[in-house]
């Protein structure tokens, strides 16, 4: 048997007033759906949709932690790139130039790390 593809190829265009659109956005924000198109499709087809069961403070915490994770990943990537470049040098003159750049980058890394630490302390105090 062939598997039936579930590609959505048809478009449905709807015009709304500002008030109608704000109402739909407000209702959408109260659900667990990640995309408005999924929410609208469920409404039109009469499928059940799940209201938000998490509280707002948990959502805020998750967003803050995701932002901190991105910052930490960026700092780690910069560190890895610097060390990888160090391994490509063959003479002392190149290494000397790298050390100057390394000191500057290290200060930026520690600054980012301090900002992350402060943010984590604020989150910890809230909980």
Describe this structure in words.
The protein is an all-alpha fold. The chain is 69% helix and 0% strand. The longest helix is centred in the last third of the chain and has 35 residues, at 92-126. It starts with 17 loop residues before the first helix and ends with a helix. The mean pLDDT is 82.
In summary, what is this structure?
By secondary structure, this protein is mostly helical.
| Sheet/helix structural class | mainly alpha
Low-confidence regions: none
Highest CATH level, the class of the largest domain: Mainly Alpha
Oligomer: single chain
Principal-axis shape: elongated
Topology of this protein?
Layout: H1 18-29, H2 36-45, H3 56-86, H4 92-126
Q: What labels describe this entry?
A:
0% strand, elongated, mainly alpha, 127 residues, 4 helices, Methane Monooxygenase Hydroxylase, Chain G, domain 1
